[in-house]
Amino acid sequence: MAEAADFPGLTPSPARRWFRRAGVLLTGAPLLAGLLQLPASEPAYAAPSDQVVVSVDSLTPSAPTDGDTLTVSGTVLNKGKQAVTAAHVDLRVGQRLTTRSGIDDVAARTDYVSGADGTEIGGKYVEKFPKIAPGVAQPFTISVPVDELDLGQDGVYQIGVSLSGETAAEPYEQVLGIQRTFLPWQPEEADTRTRTTYLWPLISTVHMTAETGPGEQQTPVFLNEDLTEEISPGGRLEQMVSLGKDLDITWVIDPDLLASVDAMIGSYGIHNADGTSTPGTGQAVAKHWLAELQDAVVGKEVVALPFADPDLASIAHKGKNVTGILNHLKNATDVAASTVATILHTTPSTDFAWPASGAVDPSIIKIATSAGADKVIVRSDSLKETGDLPYTPSAARPVGGGTTAVVADMRLSTAFQGDMTNAGSSTLSVQKFLAQSLTATLQTKKQRTVVVAPQRMPSASQAQTMAEAITDLQNSNWSQPQDLTATADTKPDPGANTKVPSYPAALRKQELPESAFTDIATTQETLDKFKIILTDKTRVETPFGRAINREMSTSWRGSSAAKGFRDGVASYLDKLTQQVKLIYKSETKLSGGSATIPVTVQNNLVQPVDNLVLRVTSKNPTRLKIGNDDYQEQSVAVSGGHSQSVKFTTSSNANGPITVTAQLYTKDGQEYGDAVSFEVRVTEFTAMAMLVIGGGFLLLVLAGLRMYTQRKRAAARRAEEPGNEPEDEATEENAGTGDHDGPECRPQGESAPASRADAPEQPSDPTPDTAQGSAGPSGTGERVDR
Prior knowledge:
Layout lengths: L13 H23 L15 E9 L8 E10 L5 E14 L2 H9 L10 E2 L5 E7 L4 E9 L9 E12 L7 E12 L8 E9 L5 E5 L7 E3 L3 H6 L4 H9 L5 E4 L1 H10 L4 E3 L5 E3 L3 H14 L4 E4 L7 H8 L5 H20 L7 E2 L8 H9 L4 E5 L16 E3 L5 E5 L1 H4 L9 H20 L6 E4 L7 H15 L4 E3 L2 H5 L16 H4 L5 H19 L5 H14 L10 H16 L2 E3 L5 E3 L3 E10 L5 E10 L5 E3 L4 E8 L3 E11 L3 E11 L4 E12 L4 H34 L5 H9 L52
Parallel strand pairs: 9-12, 9-20, 9-21, 11-13, 12-15, 16-17, 17-19, 23-30
Antiparallel strand pairs: 1-2, 2-6, 3-4, 3-5, 3-7, 7-8, 10-11, 13-14, 18-19, 22-24, 24-28, 25-27, 25-29, 26-28, 29-30
């Protein structure tokens, strides 16, 4: 029966308190008698400084049955300054432990307590050392038939491995060091076996960036080669797979880990500090690890966490009110099943959420269910028992709203969190784990379920110790394995606590800050704007969508690198958006009042872009109009790796510089990229100047016509004066035209006109009487010059 210490908040009845006091007295009486009547050969105390360190490196079998031989091996190390003489190592069988808290108390003790640590088996079951020099470690092995241990009824027994000896300063036998462990004793099959579910987590830190290599292939880029080390032989994740394939466990997998290893099978890059990347080298180990995992999960239950194992507590406390964060969580759940099914060729369960350390509060439960999970893995130190159940209740608990809390046992779940590289620590952890399991089973004859949810990312040595403990447990007479789904569906204990608690303050300090979720929202806003212009949106939706999921990962708890990763994602996205931009323009000159302005849009992406609108705006539309207004817009589509010039018509009515601004917009009216401003300088005549010049030319023409008209009128007046013949006028008008020189142009019977020499030079000159050089006679009355 479990004592009140096992169940905080339980107030024992007066009768129970009386029985407890009586039990203490009854237990203390033999102890006191033993101290007073201890034989001379039995050391009464141990050196308070624990001069000798005893390490139990192996205890087999871990849970013996009738007829077995118990073998204990380890080392003793003399830490003192004096040699230990007449020393021997012996085994001590202590009291039977009936409570789980009693096991904790024994494990916490360090000094030897005579009587409480039992008596030596003695006889031939010791190993003697004539002398152990300072700083020297000596190995030992003791084998004892289980029948010699004189074990009684089923349960857990304290086993002590002690070294007794003498020193020069204290030349009498005393216990100089002791190591305690536990021996589960269940030789026959228990009346009711506990159904134990052990979660086997395949989870890692974030490894992939949002970056991809240049070109169509989108080569993934990793932060480093740490994942290669983890999946290589002897690595943490390699050990998890090789050990887990032989165990009856429930695999709990982060799909991001699978996606990352799958990406390593092909070409991938490793991010460098200078922004470049170098080729990764883990292709072979990635292919082998995935193949081993695919074989290991055949016929086993697989639970898929949301992609990248998001920190539910951080989202519930800091991110739920930030726009879009809950959508990211839902998307992480939706993509989980398809990722696992595609890579492992098995259908996983996505009904479970697993908050960090199994700690919950009402807001975390609400967030988990909003993401699609109706079962939440909780640890018993979060959902503590407050009632009067005298045993550890079954794991499943209804917590309202159709949600089931699957409560993992805290003691079993934290059994292997220490340093398991030391054989002594590993052995003691296994024995304590088995002892806690058997004690929980013996608390009641009721059929119950127990869940073990270990640390998310066990080390290789922790995984090895876990595998050893699970193997021993599955070979025991008191436990049998069961899948997590079956455990969640079992009928809960009616007296078990179902009230969801508040969240521990210590865990809140590890959460992502609210600024992290604000950064995520900003990155998503930029991504949404960028996707509008792309013809193949999947090239950015997938890598950046998964990168945003990684920004919310539980693995960032307490890490200073989380901010750097978020900044890296945002920076790379900005770099991509800037690949589509306006080309800077210097001053543009217009050669007339009406002309076109070319503006160039450059696309350095590998895919075409469209759904863009280019708007050109005049800062002074009274002097320079774009089209028929102060601005003009045109749709833009540019092929990948090309530039496109867009022409805009302008009209100007003034010389000098005018500022023009070009800005790209998405189809939905959002600005895209930076605006480009430049000056347009009109260098030719404007329309007004041309009008003035045209008016002046017209005046000149009119002046010429007036002068011509005046001359015509003057000539007519002279012709009308006396003495002026009309012929003279006609002769004057036809002189020099040559129109009548040819004989074919004269009327018949008309004589030829006088020669040009005979004509008067001016109309007022007299006509010569005789043509110059004439040989004919003079006419009558004519004056003849001699």
